[in-house]
Design a protein that fits this description.
Blueprint: E1 2-6, H1 10-20, E2 27-32, H2 35-45, E3 49-52, E4 55-56, E5 59-60, H3 61-71, E6 77-81, H4 86-95, E7 99-102, H5 109-117, E8 122-123, H6 125-136, H7 150-160, H8 165-172, H9 176-190, H10 195-205
Parallel strand pairs: 1-2, 1-3, 3-6, 6-7, 7-8
Antiparallel strand pairs: 4-5
Helix pairs in contact: 2-3, 3-4, 6-10, 7-10, 8-9
């Protein structure tokens, strides 16, 4: 697994490289210290996971992530930061990051990178615990204004609860195919990419 590490502190970059490469499955293919280097090195090295700091001088890691995700929609971006800042967490989710963990929890870095690499979403327990509350504060537009029907709203709420398609189908007495069609239509209406962004939408607008 190839990992690209970006942090404006060169010492932290070196430390992260040591931590990551203590696992034989991980190779750090590049180290960078700025948003510009993040984008350039991502294009050059094509890593499986981009491990990215948020606060980096005038521009943030969020800017780098947005640029990378525009270039490659399925890029796997994992934010690693010392700041559990509400606004940063919301923005990270909205732009399609696969995870947001705190540097202080260094023992979770390798497992988090591995989880993101296989397609999972990873958020530290402290962040998950505050997510519903902080997202509720960020806006309360009505579902109707997005053209979302009652049935679609019901499906969105179940996605936000963490249910998979099979579980949603059983709960609503629908087929899995029908649930998939509903979800596809919902994501289309809201211009969202995946279930995580859909859960964010729900918490913002319920």
């Amino acid at each position: 697994m190839k990992v690209l590490v970006i942090d404006d502190d060169k010492l932290i970059c070196a430390s992260l490289k040591t931590i990551l490469e203590s696992d034989k499955e991980i190779t750090v293919v590049g180290l960078g210290n700025s948003v510009k280097e993040a984008v350039e090195l991502f294009y050059k090295t094509q890593p499986d996971v981009l491990l990215l700091d948020i606060r980096m001088g005038e521009m943030s890691g969020l800017d780098a992530a947005e640029a990378v995700l525009k270039m490659q929609k399925d890029a796997k971006v994992l934010f690693l930061t010392t700041f559990a800042d509400d606004e940063y967490i919301i923005k990270a989710l909205k732009i399609g990051a696969r995870g947001y963990i705190l540097k202080q929890n260094f023992e979770s870095i390798v497992p988090a990178v591995k989880a993101v690499n296989i397609g999972q979403y990873v958020f530290g327990e402290d962040i998950v615990a505050k997510l519903p509350e902080l997202l509720n504060k960020s806006g309360k537009n009505s579902f109707e204004s997005y053209g979302i029907s009652d049935k679609e709203q019901e499906i969105i709420s179940l996605v936000a609860e963490g249910l998979n398609n099979k579980e949603i189908a059983a709960k609503l007495y629908l087929s899995e195919g029908t649930v998939r069609n509903y979800l596809s239509a919902i994501l289309d209406k809201l211009n969202l990419r995946d279930r995580t962004q859909l859960a964010v939408f729900y918490f913002k607008n319920k």
